[in-house]
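User: Please fill in residues for this 97-position structure.
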């Protein structure tokens, strides 16, 4: 039997986010949830913003878990976001808004 191949997905949602592994054994695909975490926001003055640093930290933690679990079987990584939110960067690639 061929070695299983693992395809990771980071799905960023408005309420929660997750990292899922699609595992292909040559005949079928099964899905395993690697990590799940809330998509939180932070208040700055009178406005709320996505907690970019917290979300990023959770993504890195989840990917580390995936690497521990699947190692060199990982073939690729895809990221899906809600698409209507964004972060603005300055000329030095720092988040400004």
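Assistant: Residues filled in for all 97 positions:
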């Amino acid at each position: 039997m061929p070695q299983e191949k693992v395809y990771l997905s980071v799905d960023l949602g408005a309420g929660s986010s997750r990292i899922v592994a699609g595992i292909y054994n040559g005949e079928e695909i099964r899905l395993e949830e690697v990590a799940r975490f809330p998509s939180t926001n932070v208040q700055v003055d009178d406005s709320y913003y996505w907690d970019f640093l917290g979300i990023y930290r959770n993504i890195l933690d989840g990917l580390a878990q995936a690497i521990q679990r699947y190692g060199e079987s990982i073939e690729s990584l895809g990221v899906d976001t809600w698409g209507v939110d964004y972060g603005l960067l300055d000329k030095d690639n720092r988040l400004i808004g």
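For context: The chain has a mean pLDDT of 91.
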